[in-house]
Specification:
single chain, 165 residues, Immunoglobulin-like, 5-stranded mixed beta sheet, 4-stranded antiparallel beta sheet, 11 strands, 39% strand, signal
């Protein structure tokens, strides 16, 4: 009976050690993945009472591009918390790479754009042609129709987007 009890306790001890080790391995892998992909996806930023966030960024297939180009699809959620209607669209955003080069909106039929009523949210996609090897990308909101000298911009670090599955 003692041998059976000792064997059972030993087995339990081994299993609990394995479970703890497994959990810490998962934690380490999660932290490593987060460190590799420092992005501001899903981070809400506000300008003039307009709350904006980029909910996803991915490279999609597009047969109209040159061999060295890729199509970046960004999904936006924009909420109007101001007291007036607010117009916004894909053309109000551009992509910037780590060397500072800008990439404007691509002429894609599914680009979003609309006037958002007070208290409402606009969800939509914007499409941008970028180099295939582009890395460390930033999305910049730079309202196209605002020509003021004190024009404000906001930006999100999106890293290096992966291909959509």
């Amino acid at each position: 009976m003692k041998k059976l009890l000792i064997a059972a306790l030993s087995s339990l001890l081994v299993l609990s050690m394995t479970a703890c080790s497994s959990t810490s391995d998962k934690d380490a892998n999660t932290k490593a993945t987060q460190a590799e992909s420092k992005t501001e996806l899903n981070k809400e930023k506000t300008i003039n009472d307009i709350n904006m966030k980029i909910t996803s960024a991915s490279i999609i297939k597009d047969d109209t591009l040159k061999k060295d180009e890729a199509m970046l699809q960004l999904n936006f959620a924009i909420k109007n918390d101001s007291k007036a209607d607010y117009g916004v669209g894909s053309g109000d955003f551009y992509i910037k790479d780590k060397s500072g080069k800008k990439y404007e909106m691509a002429g894609h039929e599914d680009n979003f754009g609309d006037v958002i009523k007070t208290g409402k949210t606009l969800n939509g996609s914007g499409y941008y042609t970028i180099p295939k090897d582009a890395k460390d990308l930033t999305v910049v909101y730079d309202q196209a129709i605002n020509k003021a000298k004190d024009k404000k911009t906001i930006s999100w670090e999106i890293g290096t987007p992966k291909s959509a599955k």
